[in-house]
Design a protein that fits this description.
The chain has 127 residues and is an alpha+beta fold. The protein is 31% helix and 24% strand. The strands form three sheets. It has a three-stranded mixed β-sheet. A two-stranded antiparallel sheet has the order 1-2. A two-stranded antiparallel sheet has the order 6-7.
C-alpha cells in the first residue's frame, strides 16, 4: 500500500494489515513504529537540518539485538561504525517489551562519558 520514503535504501513497506494496526483497540507493530519515527525524522530534516544531522533514530530491532546475550554490543556495533554515536545530540531508541512500546531518548550522550585523557577511548569512565 505504501513505501516510505519512496525509492530509497531502507524504505519501509507498509501493508494494509499494518494500516489496520492504527485502528482503536489494535496493537502497534514494528512497521508502524518505524513509519512514525521515519516521518518524525523527515519532519525534523525540514524544520532544522542541523538538529536532524545530530539526531540518530535507531530501528525497532536495535534494542532487541542489543539485549540478546549471545550478541549484545557486538550485534549492533556495526550500526554505528561509520560515525561517533557520542557526538550526536539526541538518540531515539524504540523499545518493545511486555507487549508495550517505549521510546528512549538519550540526550547529549557525549556528556555521559568523561575522558581521563582527551581523545583516548580506552580511558573512558562513566560519570
Amino acid at each position: 500500500i505504501l513505501v516510505y520514503p519512496p525509492a530509497t535504501l531502507g524504505a519501509i513497506n507498509v501493508t494494509n494489515a499494518d494500516m489496520h494496526r492504527l485502528a482503536p483497540g489494535q496493537w502497534l507493530n514494528d512497521t508502524v513504529i518505524e513509519l512514525g519515527l521515519s516521518l518524525l525524522h523527515h519532519d525534523l530534516q525540514h524544520r532544522d537540518r542541523t538538529l536532524a544531522a545530530n539526531t540518530e533514530f535507531f530501528s525497532t530491532f536495535f534494542f532487541s539485538v542489543l539485549g540478546v546475550q549471545s550478541s549484545g554490543y557486538r550485534g549492533v556495533s556495526s550500526w554505528t561504525s561509520g560515525y561517533d554515536i557520542f557526538a550526536r545530540d539526541f538518540i531515539f531508541i524504540p523499545i518493545h517489551a511486555s507487549s508495550h512500546w517505549f521510546l528512549a531518548v538519550v540526550c547529549f550522550p557525549g556528556h555521559l562519558l568523561a575522558c581521563s585523557k582527551p581523545n583516548n577511548r580506552q580511558n573512558l569512565k562513566l560519570v
